[in-house]
């Protein structure tokens, strides 16, 4: 089920909220877990079964982590979630890479015949991090199975993050069970939901449609500036698609008295590639830092570890060599900054931001193109005549408007996404419930034009 669908906004969400606040406190988590399983189960019974098995396995094996030898117990704990992830997400990529024939593929027909379960990378990382934290003694095993299920299934962050750790949600889930009278941030939650929906449809999806205008065109049908404009539209599509989901997830969490972390902090204002990854998909960056990079030795073998981590970042985003190349490309950017840091940091701030944005943007076509098509894309940039064929003035003005919001207006001025809340209440336009209602109405009116969130495929 998608956040940007009438079924979710008109039926599922109001019904869940109504029942959640109507039942006694000891039933609230039952409502959330049940609703979340319905939310995920729409994808199909096979993927729901795999999801439930991964949750049950993560819960049950946590009690072995303090009784068995740590290494053995940890391998057992992460085996089933990791196996599920590999078989559903990477099996086709592995078979393609080894050029497997029909006979070998026939042995895996069950997995190959099922669409990639939505959000499988997210919930796998969450369950694995729980197991590792228990093994390291950072948290005790959760004995309340319902509370653990609430952590793993909570639908606002289930499909596309943020990637949560159990310690971040444990006390909030306990409060839902024990607090007599909840005080949700309804105004803030609904406002963020409306803003996210509006930006998803009118910024991310329109940018994606315009970028697609120049995809697959032969030389002569598109010129060099068309390719540059296409890169810019891809950059805005990917950012605002991910950002919009994150904003909607935070808003939905607040409707249920759960505060989810901010996952994007104006990453296109980053002054270098390392800062970019401190602002972009923050929960993924810190997950990989804590559970992969540091455990490999961190700075002791900096270049090797960075390249490995970012290759994993690429594979996490998609099962394809184009995604691996994208990850390695970002690893190379981080290493480039590490090597040139004294000179890079002396650049004027505006120049360093522009440079970082440009370098990041030229990686985004790998999300949409194969490696061969990407090289052809770069060749077009270098060899085609300098001009515009596919994009007109209205497209450029639209892109300029997005750029003005992205680079010219700080989120703290207009979004009010981080606690303490209510800072915009005195600003009649930005904090107006009328404006939020108008954004929601516009989004729902055009919701049929919206596309699935990009991260749903990860």
What does this structure look like?
There is one protein chain. With 458 residues, the protein is mainly α. It is built from 21 helices and no strands. The model has no long low-confidence stretch (mean pLDDT 89). Helix 4 (70-97) runs antiparallel to helix 7 (120-135) and helix 8 (145-153) packs across helix 10 (166-178). The chain starts with 5 loop residues before the first helix and ends in a 13-residue tail after the last helix. The protein has 2 domains: 6-178, no CATH class; 186-457, no CATH class. It is globular. The protein has helices at residues 6-22, 28-41, 45-61, 70-97, 102-106, 109-112, 120-135, 145-153, 155-158, 166-178, 186-212, 224-255, 273-279, 282-293, 302-317, 321-345, 349-361, 371-383, 393-408, 411-414, 433-445.
Q: Summed up, what is this model?
A:
The protein has 21 helices and no strands. It has 458 residues and is mainly α.
Strand content: under 5%
Query: What gross morphology would you assign?
Result: globular
Q: List the domain count as a whole number.
A: 2
The unreliable regions are none
What is the fold's blueprint, element by element?
Layout: H1 6-22, H2 28-41, H3 45-61, H4 70-97, H5 102-106, H6 109-112, H7 120-135, H8 145-153, H9 155-158, H10 166-178, H11 186-212, H12 224-255, H13 273-279, H14 282-293, H15 302-317, H16 321-345, H17 349-361, H18 371-383, H19 393-408, H20 411-414, H21 433-445
Helix pairs in contact: 1-2, 2-8, 3-4, 3-7, 4-7, 8-10, 11-12, 11-21, 12-18, 12-19, 14-15, 15-16, 16-17
């Amino acid at each position: 089920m998608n956040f940007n669908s009438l079924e979710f906004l008109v039926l599922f969400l109001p019904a869940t909220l109504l029942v959640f606040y109507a039942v006694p406190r000891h039933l609230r988590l039952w409502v959330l877990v049940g609703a979340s399983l319905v939310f995920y189960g729409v994808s199909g019974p096979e993927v729901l079964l795999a999801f439930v098995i991964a949750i049950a396995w993560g819960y049950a094996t946590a009690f072995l982590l303090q009784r068995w030898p740590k290494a053995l117990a940890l391998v057992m704990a992460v085996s089933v979630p990791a196996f599920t992830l590999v078989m559903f997400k990477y099996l086709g990529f592995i078979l393609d890479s080894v050029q497997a024939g029909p006979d070998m593929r026939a042995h895996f027909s069950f997995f190959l015949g099922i669409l990639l379960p939505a959000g499988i990378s997210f919930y796998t990382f969450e369950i694995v991090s729980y197991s590792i934290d228990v093994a390291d003694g950072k948290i005790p095993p959760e004995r309340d199975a319902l509370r653990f299920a609430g952590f793993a299934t909570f639908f606002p962050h289930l499909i596309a993050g943020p990637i949560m750790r159990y310690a971040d949600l444990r006390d909030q889930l306990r409060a839902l069970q024990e607090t007599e009278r909840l005080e949700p941030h309804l105004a803030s939650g609904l406002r963020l939901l409306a803003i996210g929906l509006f930006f998803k449809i009118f910024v991310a999806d329109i940018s994606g449609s315009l970028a697609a205008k120049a995809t697959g065109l032969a030389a002569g049908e598109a010129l060099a500036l068309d390719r540059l404009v296409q890169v810019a539209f891809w950059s805005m599509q990917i950012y605002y698609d991910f950002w919009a989901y994150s904003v909607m997830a935070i808003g939905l969490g607040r409707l249920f008295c759960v505060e989810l972390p901010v996952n994007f902090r104006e990453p296109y204002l980053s002054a270098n590639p390392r800062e970019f990854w401190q602002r972009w998909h923050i929960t993924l960056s810190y997950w990989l830092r804590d559970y992969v990079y540091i455990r490999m030795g961190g700075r002791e073998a900096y270049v090797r570890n960075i390249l490995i981590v970012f290759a994993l970042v690429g594979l996490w985003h998609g099962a394809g060599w184009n995604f691996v190349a994208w990850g390695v490309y970002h690893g190379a950017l981080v290493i480039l900054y590490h090597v040139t840091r004294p000179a890079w940091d002396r650049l004027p701030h505006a120049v360093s931001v522009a440079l970082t944005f440009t370098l990041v943007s030229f990686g985004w076509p790998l999300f949409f193109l194969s490696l061969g098509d990407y090289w052809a894309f770069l060749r077009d940039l270098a060899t085609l005549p300098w001009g515009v064929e596919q994009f007109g003035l209205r497209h450029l003005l639209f892109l300029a408007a997005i750029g003005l919001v992205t680079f010219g207006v700080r989120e703290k001025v207009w979004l009010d996404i981080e606690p303490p809340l209510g800072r915009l209440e005195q600003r009649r336009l930005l904090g107006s419930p009328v404006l939020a209602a108008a954004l929601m109405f516009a989004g729902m009116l055009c919701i049929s034009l919206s596309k699935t969130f990009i991260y749903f495929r990860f």
